[in-house]
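Before any further analysis, we paired sequence with structure tokens, yielding the entry below:
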Amino acid sequence: MVKLIVFYLLLLVCCGYALLRGGAPERIGAAIYAIGTALTVLTYRAWAQRFGAVEVGIMALDLATTVALLVLALRARRWWPLWVTALQAVSTVGHLAKLADPQMIRWAYAFLLGIWSYPILAIIAFGTFNHQRRLKRFGSDPSWSSFSGRSGRPAAPMR
């Protein structure tokens, strides 16, 4: 129970920081992750059945979150969405491990799905911190790559 409280506090702090202080990619990424987490909680099965078999609802949400983060990573002029997408994809692959080995211990399956959440939150916060640093140093921080279709002008080189 303490682990859940710590996680939700970190989720609130990291995503709140990104929503309040981040550029568009940070706000969008934080929203994607926070909404995915909230919907995941709503799809949990009863405690006695949880993680005993493949969590189909969570797998669908993890896949949707991975795809949304991938779209963000392809459009944003930031490095952090690539890392967040990769970690979310690793978590999503955890479902395939349970499919491959239905006898996998429940806690191992739950661990495979959840362990990546902590570095994801740290990376979102660090990406927001870097955005603020670039704003102070350069006065601006373009959000979108020139090929993303979000900007009519070519993007400046990344710093």
